[in-house]
Amino acid sequence: MKRTTLGLLAGLTLWSVPALAQAPEPPSGADTESVQGEEHSLSGRVLRAGTGILYVESTEGPAVPLRITHATRVQGQRIPRAQGVETYLSDAFPPGTSVRVTFDVRTLEDGTPQNVVRTVEVVPRPAPGP
Predict the structure, then answer these.
(1) Collapsing DSSP states into helix, strand and coil, what is residue 127?
(2) May I ask which residue range the UniProt record assigns to the signal sequence (predicted)?
(3) Model-level pTM greater than 0.85?
(4) Who contacts 125 (Cβ-Cβ below 8 Å, separation ≥6)?
């Protein structure tokens, strides 16, 4: 009886292994962003910096939330990994700073669009006249 049970269990195990081996794997990074979208640019002034988001009032109208990551280039440099994005943003971009931004509009897995910044450059203000 013991051999029959073991043989039956072994047979069931071997029978189910090929089905498990052929099961499709879930896509890696299921909660990550989709492939980069079309590049856009924006000029304006910083309203505030939040948790990984820079709010910029564009010269054409409303404020635009822009996601900043460690991959974002700020003045040609990446944000140091040892420093938090939020801390860096609040130090580098106080309210009123004029900036020029390039970004992608990406769609997250849940269908939510998000503006993800590629580069941010501070635009120097013209010197006051004589």
Answers:
(1) coil
(2) 1-21
(3) no
(4) 98
Q: Give the position of tokens 């109208």.
A: 61
Q: 102 in helix, strand or coil?
A: strand
Q: How confident is the model at residue 127 (pLDDT cuts 50, 70, 90)?
A: low
Strand intervals (E) in 9-112: 39-49, 53-58, 63-67, 73-74, 77-78, 98-107
CA 109 to chain centre: 12
Owner of token pair 């962003």: 33
- Average pLDDT, whole number, for the chain? 75
Cα(first)–Cα(last) distance of the chain, in Å?
104
Contact call for residues 118 and 68 (beta carbons, < 8 A): no
d(CA 85, CA 89): 6
Residue of 61, 60, 90, 58 lying closest to 74 (CA atoms): 90
